[in-house]
Amino acid sequence: MFPQRLAEAAERIQTHFDDVLRAFEPVPVVQAMGYATQGGKRLRGFLVLESARLHGIAADRAIWSANAIEALHAYSLVHDDLPCMDDDDLRRGRPTVHVKWDEGVAVLAGDALQTLAFELVSRPENGPAEIRAELTLSLARASGAQGMVLGQALDIAAEAATVPLSLDQITALQAGKTGALIEWSACAGARLAGADPEPLRRYASALGLAFQIADDILDVEGDAEKAGKRLQKDAAANKATFVSLLGLDAAKMRATELVAQACDALDPYGREADTLRAAARFVIARDN
Known about the structure:
288 residues
């Protein structure tokens, strides 16, 4: 059931991206935007659509927010892959944007995807003005210097630090770098409905951390071909991770505990939230 729902969400998101970008001039930067938004699990967009369904919001309305978060996530990957950041040449099994085009196109494509995200989330299709304002404000906080960008900045600083980060510091770093956008995604449905997002916030807080621990585990024992990117970079850089601090077995145990916490947070929704529970279990069972 869950794999099918995830695949259906991914297809719906891609179709909507194609429709949105079709209205743009087909210049290299727009072509790069389309390239960057292809593929991937679409977990964040799925969380938007599923949390919206949980609150009685139609997919045709929620799709704008789903595409917004996927556009913003794509921008973060394009910029993260740049030589001045992680300097990666492979993403989702294909050349990264700056490799396929050049660094200038990659920077501009990332910029355009970021601004597109805010255009999509503020469109009238999302609902009344106060709901659109809340979606836009919360997305700005989740993606900027209080959220994802802060986490990325802390990550860059950690690479140059002489003392490895502690477990608490890594947890705080990842709450921004990975967790903030996952939290926004899971809470979007409640915000679209004008409902209390707190249960979904608690779900997403545990889910986001489990997701990052799973990433650290995959970096150690994953298959690069399945992952579609280079692995074991953290160990090569002598970078502190959940695995390096906890050990592989303890990291797996911690991820499992977090998934249980995420599932428990959904108790107010009963069986209606079973697909979100399956999403949490998927996070630590995935191989890419």
